[in-house]
Amino acid sequence: MSEPRFQAVVADDHAIVRSGLRAALESPGLVEPAGVKVVAEAADGLSAIAAIRQHRPSLLLLDVQMPLAGGLEVLIEARRWSPETRVVVLSGVTSPGKIGELVSCGVDGLFSKGEDNDELFGALPGILRGRRHVSEVFRRMLEEAPEVPDLSERERQVLNLVVTGRSNKEIAQILGISVKTVDRHRTNLMQKLDVHSVAQLIAYALREGLIAPTSGL
Amino acid sequence: MSEPRFQAVVADDHAIVRSGLRAALESPGLVEPAGVKVVAEAADGLSAIAAIRQHRPSLLLLDVQMPLAGGLEVLIEARRWSPETRVVVLSGVTSPGKIGELVSCGVDGLFSKGEDNDELFGALPGILRGRRHVSEVFRRMLEEAPEVPDLSERERQVLNLVVTGRSNKEIAQILGISVKTVDRHRTNLMQKLDVHSVAQLIAYALREGLIAPTSGL
DNA sequence: GATGGATTGGGGGATCTACCCCATCCTGCG
DNA sequence: CGCAGGATGGGGTAGATCCCCCAATCCATC
Predict the structure, then answer these.
(1) Which whole-number Å values give the CA distances from B160 to A196, A213, B58, B96, B205, in the listed order?
(2) Mutate which of A14, A68, A198 to test chain B, going by most B C-beta atoms within 10 A?
(3) ipTM > 0.90?
(4) Percent of chain B residues past pLDDT 90, beyond the cut
């Protein structure tokens, strides 16, 4: 058997997923003529980046949601340190916003974890030859996605603090601005997002993935 | 090769995870002498239950978070229709509350997806012989878990409505009670949970998995 | 049958939210 | 240069929230 022509790095926080992907990638006949060899696995974003810098593989298969660094950050870093690496992102359920970011940052492949993997593995040879492939599910999601109500930097900060349970007074102290200004940002925020209460604001933020659900309190 | 002695059903909403688990379970040498055969896969809770009723396998490997029915519901239904099936739950990151529920409902095995699978596969033979095994991570989580602030039925209803963005007035109309009573429940709720605003209430509810993040608006 | 909890609800008040009004300052852009 | 847009705030207000006070009912458990 000849040496595998393509090297791959697999990044996912679940060990089972990593071994499943490794097995699938290395199964003979997937990519002709020599197949793919998984040279490294990573359980979090930072070690994924480290693995990219070390191996500069042909392919990076990575999950969107990972500890320490998300899919988007890893994508950007991968582009920086190993521009020729094809980056394929696997996503669980994510918001149109996140998906859109990934696409506009130029992922080479974008697939859902939930659907069959046939689409992924069917498209892989093409991707390794430089084609791009965004899963049908996500393409529809992006078309149907209605609003992209882009928020300013300050608004995003305020939103994050609101969502973590801070009152206007606390936010004002944290950001070193007046309560009135926080109030202003909040009003603009709710107008942009077309909601009318903190609860809806939080629900929206979580749904759209504007903020991490892991941000404490 | 002799017929496998143990039949298994694998339930997870991600196809990659299912195939990874199938490969690992069916790899020779895992369980002596005859190994495990995966007789069915399920991508959601309801088909998991259906598979259990049809196959009555020795082992059910299932994810906590699945569409249509969660891990707990599937566990309960599995016990009902196939009491001799060993149920092993795999969990991503979940709250102490959910973990505690699973344990007190008597799962035969409880493992984290993030950690190495060695613990799972090492414990599997024992589990198939009737032993129970809760992963070290979760055992520590349960020990360190401080509060179990159990809420009344009404409080839970109110919490759910608050979290989905309803105002006190709306909640009062929905439940057919006075605004004052809603207010009362809310106050008690916040006292029990030691929080002081809607935002913190929502953050708490999401963090502890008291409510589904998928509840609209 | 008494005690405790859950649920119900009214009065009242301090505070906060949501949203108007207004203005200033700065920065980037045609 | 003007001018839009972002960020900054002050005044004001109707309404909502948060949290006290109080008491009634029902229901289980001791």
Answers:
(1) 18, 17, 37, 19, 9
(2) A14
(3) no
(4) 14
